[in-house]
Amino acid sequence: MVREIIKLGAERQSWLIFCAGVAHAHHVREALTEQGIVAQCVTGETPSAERDKMLSDFKAGRIRALTNANVLTTGFDAPGIDLIAMLRPTMSPGLYVQMAGRGLRIAEGKTDCLVLDFAGVVEQHGPITAVNPPPRKGDKIGE
């Protein structure tokens, strides 16, 4: 996955990578770093001062890739993100929209955002422009 992210993201400047857990997020960051990508990892265990510095450096372009485990899905705004990599599944269409939405912000010089789905999220929930919400409790399923 890391090699494919690097290959497909070669022309992209700001990568946000959603991982399946804390150990996975650290492992992906290490793999990126080994390939020469400036990357950091943010988790719920990251001290707030360290997290603030990482996010500031990421937004300023000093860090190209941020891996994370369940922390940068909501309330995080970095309009320059032009690559989202989903390395974790989710049963929640809302969480899917939040993850993909991190890359849908408008920014000067940005024309689009590449979303790489390695976890079947798009297949499960549909394209981001037509998310299929799950049936509500009591809704009839079938023809």
- Got a strand count? 5
Alpha-beta classification: alpha/beta
Uncertain runs: none
Helix content: 25-40%
User: What is the helix tally?
Assistant: 5
β-strand percent reads 5-15%
* Strand ordering within the main sheet: 2-3-1-4-5
Choose one word for the global shape.
globular
- Radius of gyration equals 16 Å
Q: Average pLDDT across residues?
A: 91
Report how far the terminal alpha carbons are from each other. Answer: 39 Å
The ordered H/E elements are HEHEHEEHEH
Q: Could you give a short account of the major beta sheet?
A: 5 strands, parallel
The assembly state of the depicted protein chains is single chain
Write the layout of secondary structure elements.
Layout: H1 2-8, E1 15-18, H2 22-34, E2 39-42, H3 48-59, E3 65-68, E4 83-86, H4 93-101, E5 114-117, H5 121-125
Parallel strand pairs: 1-3, 1-4, 2-3, 4-5
